[in-house]
Amino acid sequence: MEINSLGDFIQYTWTSAKTLVDLGGSVVGVQLFISIVGLAMVFYKVLQYTTVSDSRFGRLKVAIDQWSAGDREAAEKELNRSWLKLAKDVKFGLDRIANTDREVLRDELARRGMEFLRPYGKLLRTLEIVYYLSPVLGLLGTVLGMIDAFRHLAAVAGTEKGSSALANGIWQALVCTAVGLVIAIIFTTFHAMLQTRLERVSEQVSDVLTRVLTVSVHRV
């Protein structure tokens, strides 16, 4: 089928999915539904991570350097322009570096850093369930398909249709396993990419908050 438009792509996707469900049965339908939900979560996480680019953390570091150099007005303007909620936590730390115990401030900034990161870690565990569950569902579908194949074989035992019924039953049952493995591979890759991005954001948050505490050391 030649795909020339979005409508053609949607039609092709729908037809392919319907064919897989017809071949593999209800288990494949469940697998495809899970994969659609999983893709929606992946799309949401990708959009979410676009809001925490390295350049935005870089602007926070510039503001900290300005504060450390004594240019508080420029630092405050930079922080107020930031789209990152972490900017408020940076401002909180900088405002208190001279009058707050460093260990107390460290603990509070660590708590605020974890609070900032919490939304970016959500749904990753759910994506793990997608790529863990899909192969298991595939195996279940294959077992059920094999049971059904041998049931049909028993009904036509001793006839010319016996071997044909078994062969058709086996390859149709294996469709469930194939679909499950494909979904697992795709979502394992997605999860690894998102997990890597989360680790990068965590490193940036840690670096920014450590810079705030370093300023406090210099100013004490």
How would you characterize the overall build of this protein?
- The protein is mainly alpha-helical.
- The protein has 2 domains: 24-50 and 125-202; 54-121 and 207-215, no CATH class.
- It is built from 8 helices and no strands.
- The chain has helices at residues 6-24, 26-49, 54-68, 72-81, 86-96, 102-121, 124-155, 161-219.
- Helix 1 packs across helix 2 (26-49), helix 3 (54-68) packs antiparallel against helix 4 and helix 3 (54-68) runs parallel beside helix 8.
- The model has no long low-confidence stretch (mean pLDDT 85).
The strand count comes to 0
Largest sheet: none
User: Could you tell me the strand content as a percent range?
Assistant: under 5%
Average residue-wise pLDDT: 85
Beginning-to-end CA distance, first to last residue: 71 Å
Residues in helices, as a percent range: over 70%
Q: Total domains, how many? A: 2
Return the string of H and E elements: HHHHHHHH
- Class inferred from helices and paired strands: mainly alpha
Overall radius of gyration: 27 Å
List unreliable stretches of 5+ residues. none
What is the number of helices? 8
Overall spatial form:
elongated
